[in-house]
Each structure stands twice: as C-alpha cells, then as structure tokens.
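Sanity check

After download, print the first record. It should look like this:
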Amino acid sequence: MSRPASRLHSMLVLLSALVALSSPTSAAPPVRLNARAVSLPLTCRTGTFQGKILSRVEVWRGVPYAQPPVGDLRFERPQPVPEVGLDDPTFGVVRDATAFKPRCLQTSSKENAEDCLYLNLYRPQGTAASAKLPVAVYIFGGSFYSGGANSYSPSNMNVPIIVVTLDYRLGHLGFGASPALRAAGLLNNGLADQREALRWVHDNVPYFGGDADKIMLFGQSAGAISVSYQMLAYGGNLTELVRGAIMESGAPGTAFALDHTSSFPAKQFLTEDSKNLIMLQKTGCVGAVDEIACLRVATTTHILSGQSAIRSYGGFPYAPAIDDAFLIDVPSKLLDAGKFAQIPFISGTQLDEGTDFMASTAFTSLNLTTDTQLTAWIRAQTPGMSATDAAAFLRLYPNVQSAGSPYNTGSVKFLWKLFKRSSSMLGDLAFEAPRRYFLRAANLLDAANQAAAANSTLVQTVTTTTQPVEDQPVGLTLVASNSTKDGSGSNTTMSTFEGTFTGNITNTTTVLTPFQYAPLKVWSYQFSQTPAGGYDYLGASHGDEVPWVWSTSTSTEVGADGLRNAMSDAWIYFTNFLDPNGPTSPVFWPQYLQSNKTQLQFKLGQQSLISDTYRSSAIDFINGNEAIFGQ
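Expected structure tokens:
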C-alpha cells in the first residue's frame, strides 16, 4: 500500500527545509527534486550506463564496482574498476544497466555466478545532478552464504534519498578460511568487497545527484554484522566513507558470526581446518603443492559441492575471521579499546530473535528435552565454557514455558519441550548481548571523549607537505661541533654555502590544539510485531522488520500504515540528519544512554518507549564472560 500523496509532499517539503536550515556550510540544499533532471544514460568515472525509469524512481542495475573476481582473481582482494578517460576506447560507450546481474555464487539461487561484484543505484525520479541527496547503502543478510541485492528495492518508500544495494562474495569464495588463505592475507574477501563498493559509491555517487559526504550504511542480520565489522575494520577507519550506520539484528561479536582458528573453534560446528579439508576433497585439491592455485581452477560446481558438504554439518559455517589486517582482534577487545568508527548509529533487534533459528533445519534435529542435552548443546557452541559455567548459565534461564521465547505467550509449549528456553538463550547470545555490548562501548567512549574535552587535553597534529622546486636559490649554514672525551675542550666550525637547489622541499608543522568533542550519538529499538498469518511459535522473529523498513509490508491490519511510516521515516530521517526523529515521528526517540537504557518499541499502534533491562542477569553474564563466549 502506498502512502497518501499529501503526506509524501509534506514530508519532502519538511525534509528540504530542515536540511537547508541544518547545513549552513552547504552551498546548495541537499534535496532538490523534479528540477533539471539528469537524462539517461549517465556517465560517471567508470563509464556510461543506461538506466531505467520506474514509476517513482530511476534505477541503474548491475553497475560494476570491482573487476570480476574470476580466474586468477578468485580468492583475491577486489580490484577496482578502471576509470574511463577521454583517451579510453570505451569512452562514451553506453553499457546496459537496466537488468539485475546474477547473485554471487550460492546454492540458494539458480540465478548465480562468480562474476557478481555489482551494485544497484536508485534515486527519486527527476533528481537533479546537483541535488546532493543523502545516500543509504544497504548490505543484505543471509548467514554469509546466501542472499542477493536484487531482493530489495526502495520503490515503495517514496524517499528523497539515493539508495544503493550491493552484492558481495559469499560462502567459501567470500569467507573461506584456511592456513593457506590466512598466510596469503586473503581472508574476509566478502567484507573487502563491501569496502570496495563503498569506495565506488563515494567516488561516483555525485554524478547521480548524491552527496559523497552524506553516506549512511545499513544492513540486516549478516548485513548488520557486516556493517559492524566495517566499523571495526582497520581500527575503525571508516569515517572518510560513511558518516552513520544502522544495524538491524546484528552487532560486533554476534554469536556464530566470527570464525576462529582451529585452536579456538568457538561458535562453529566445524573447525577452520575441517572445513578446508572438505573443500579440498570436493575439488580434488588434497595434497596440492599450492592449495590456492588448485582451488582457483576448480569448477564452480565443485566449489558449490564443497560448500553444501560443509553446510550439511549444520550451524553457520561461514563468517568473517580475525586476520591481523581487516579485523585485527576479537570484537570485544576492539570495542573496549575504542577502536571503532566514531559515527552515530542505531542498533536494534526483534523481540524473538532466537525462534527462527531454533526452528530451522540447522537445529530441528536437536529436539532438546532435557537439561543435559541443553548443556551439551550450549557447550558445543562455546568450547571455552566449563561444566560449572554452563550450569550457572542455564540457571539464568528458568525452565518455565512462560519465561521463554516467543515471549508473552504464557505457558503454551511449542515444538519440543525446551524450544522456548533454548530460543531465549540463543536470541540473547547471538543478538541481544552483542547489541548491548556495542551500545555500552559507544556510551563509554563518548564519556571519555567528553572528559578529555573538559580537561582541555591538547592533541598534537603533525602536517607534512612536500613541494618540488627547480633552481631554487638557497643559503645554507652548516655548524659542526667537536668535544673532547673528558669534556675539557671543544671546537666549533661554521661554513656557509650559497647556490641553487633542485628537488623536493619538505615542511613539517606541529600544532597543539584542544581536544574537539563531537558527541557519539546512538539509538536502539525493539521490533515486537508478530506478522499476520505467521507461525505462532516464531513470534516477532528474525527478519520480520525488513518489509516494514522497506515499506513492502502488505499488512492491512489496523495501524499498519502507521507502523510502515514510523519505521521507514526514522531510517530516512537518520540518513538525512543522523537523527531518527523528525516532524512525522509518532514518538520522540531518545538517545540510548547508560543512565536511561531506553529503546523505541515498534509495534502496531504502540510505538512506545521501553527499558532495555530485560533478562539483565543473563545478558550481563554473557557480556561479562567474553572469553567463554568468544565475543
């Protein structure tokens, strides 16, 4: 269901006015629609692309942001697409960008290919080249082995922003880990793909009417986890590309979303070495002198066969890994050290995060009915957990149906005896605990920054400039001083030279300035709406918020329009102003602070504030034992 035209018009006017008022240093308002529209096709740094006009948006589909990662580039870092200059034979050649490209290699889709590093760019119809619209870049989820950018479109959102969706390598090609890949520095290629896409957007979005200085990154599930790891990457070096982030059900340290070496195989049913051996067996590369070279010539059929065999062991076998480059340590240590991008962010979860996973094929065979089985399952996920720790952890989750997830369902039992109890544990372990840890780290860093500013801490800034010169007149005086070993005598010689100099002159300037405090603002939400016609045993489960954010929910329930508008508007406002509050917000959404721990609850007709203190003892236990849970 689309929004009323009058409401859309009002929102665009308000956004345009507010952006103009809030950006005094900007020469032109960042939102300008329906004026001097750029005609299709459109030329950017990497070529000319023919897009497509839909009912409310103009879209360019399948635009390459990196070279095809095939052949010798399989398992390599993404290589930038060359810029097309005036002397390039392809300059002016129009490339078709009206159809989606296949998803990255996976077994979950028939339309997939290894040549898959493409993105899709949407802008409001009639956007001017000089509009300088804010940009929202979306990373999809799918447990790092499935999914695609073509599942998401902002066509129903009616928004004055540019939206970009991107594909990135999945499974073994994007997140494969082995001693050979580790030694070659080729882990986390899927994350590297995402970073390369961000660079492309930053460099090229101005040609589409976007503002390269106003890029917001958001994602869901594995996409949200990816966003969080982009914030941790290289010690937090992201601010040149992104100024804000939204994470829907995913945060640094999310359980099952960090691969470890064989010495600490936490959160994985298979160790790194075991997964590598299976892939080598399926590709005929066991015993190869150069494993990577052998895998590069393996067929995609054999690669997919290896992935399927690895997945058959259950769980979530593919995930980012600590690699001493992109992700240099476990998230908890990086967060504690303040090594993450200091940008405003929103981090939220579903009411019942664990139910969908416990009911999935990854866990249905467990049929947990006794504490002994539950203890064994928990310890299998966390090899660092002792029997004593496991017993203490289980005591924090009462064996009472009314206390389990899906929450607010009373004493009703779903699926097996301990389904609700185990769903509650998994939801907290995988999503709620990491979310709170990240929010707390941001609050603590903000407080430290504020204290540093209050104490007038001086920050040393060193600026070095190098300037080439030719036949530059110079005068040079050399002073030489000698002293006897016992210090009883000394001799000083001065020599003066005059002439010309050709080469580079380097000037270094050191300036001490007071620490400049910039508030690190964060918000949190809980999505609590159970979908109409959904399964009772799932509740408001993982991913249920997605259609509401993208305004694709077809719900006709009372209050559905209000919920759709509340969520999508908050995301739009945040993209524009780095604040989810705006003129159409039904409830003021306060920042998340350790002093209030307030979340905004999204629910039909009940957008309200709630306290983020539920199951505090259990979640505090998880966050207080990072070594056990591998966060």
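If your output differs, re-run the checksum step. Summary of this record's structure: The longest strand covers residues 458-483.
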